[in-house]
Amino acid sequence: MPPFDRVVERHGTTVLRVCRALLDTADADDAWSETFLAALVAWPDLPADVNVEAWLVTVARRKALDVLRARARRPQPVELVPEPPAPVPFDELVARDDALLGAVRSLPDGQRDAVVLHHLAGLSHLEVAELTGRSHAACRRSAADGVAALRRALSDAAPAAPDARRARRPLPSPEGALR
Amino acid sequence: MTDAPAPAVELDDDPSLRLGLVAATDSAPGPRLDAHLDELRDRLADSAASAGTVDVFWRTVPSPVGDLLLCATDVGLVRVAFDVEDHDAVLDRVAVQVGSRVLRSPRRLDGVVVELDQYFAGRRRDFDLVLDRRLSRGFQRTVLEHLPEIPYGETASYARVAAASGSPRAVRAVGTACATNPLPVVVPCHRVVRSDGTPGRYRGGEAAKAVLIGLESGARS
Asked: Is residue A171 part of a domain?
């Protein structure tokens, strides 16, 4: 096998994107590390013809979903005693769009997979189908439904939250977005 | 301050959705993302090292003889390579010879870099590094193990090294052993020259060999 480092170099960004789409920054970093640690162990015995990117994305998605499931099962003391969130650096504030990420994370599983794996990570619908165990047609449909759902969610959110951040980042009106 | 709106996230077509998602995950290409990935890669190397799942760590370091590639195993430094050898090609061979679980980790090779910097500044004559000699075998290994006997700042002929290695007639084999030294600079094959005083073959090229001989003779005085 070629040096494993090439894989980190080539696919590190895509894996980080998948992790960050599903998890908050610190958890995303952990999921990134766990993904590449698992990949490193498996690397010498991997079939030479494996689609490395799809394989990594599969592992990353599974690691991220593990974290989410663990969160959901665990009692959430954070909700009882809310702690003030750590301040986000201003440059990050400019770069992030929490509304979009929030909408992505509230999508049903299939649509979220389609949006994150196809639209963000760039896998084909067929690859998404293979790694999620669903049919090609279902993945295609989920991708379209997911995009429509995101558009609806963001359009609904836009007029309801006329704060400073919303004003700085105008979203298309429902009519405009649908046209 | 101008009130230029940030690009709106349009969801009707894939390219803009992709751009929106890239912005939302704060992962657009650039120095900030590169710095974060570098940090993640260093952390990955540390975790993998404690799990014992790494065959080779590597990094590069600038030097007066061009960028040097440094490769280490958990035993010690296993390969030093010059720019002219093509670092990518060297890493490919190391992955086959030593193992494919190869990770970049500047941090884990800091100690080697410190000693090399001291050497190139003329402030170090001997290296105090643990070496992994698995890439040299047989007669080559015997020859290379004798090289540190040639004092800093001096040179010896291939014939003399052949005699010191116990095979006075193996002058050619000594030449080959030196020219394929997996740990050049650190194992001083640059101190072995032709009988007429010209530098002779070197993995980093004859010019690099002359630079090292010049460095050592200049620092000596």
From this structure: no
Q: What is the DSSP string of B92-122?
A: HHHHHHT-S-EEE-TGGGHHHHHHHHHHHTT
Q: Coil, strand or helix: which one is B61? A: strand
pLDDT in tens, A85-109: 566 555 555 555 678 888 999 999 9
**Residue in A closest to B27 by C-alpha:** A17
Q: What is the ipTM of this complex?
A: 0.82
CATH number where B165 lies: 1.10.10.10
B203 lies in a domain?
Answer: yes
pTM score: 0.80
User: Nearest Cβ partner of A16 from B6, B11, B27?
Assistant: B27
User: Quick count: other Cβ atoms within 10 Å of Cβ B220?
Assistant: 12
Quick one: closest CA in B to A178, which residue? Answer: B12
Verify that A126 and A67 share a domain, yes or no.
no
Say if residue A114 is in the same domain as residue A34.
no
Range of the domain at A22: 1-86
Catalytic residue annotation of B: 189
- Contact call for A40 and B12, based on CB within 8 A: no
Contact list in B for residue A35 (CB cut-off 8 A) is none
Q: What does the pLDDT average to over B156-169?
A: 92
pLDDT of residue A170: 45
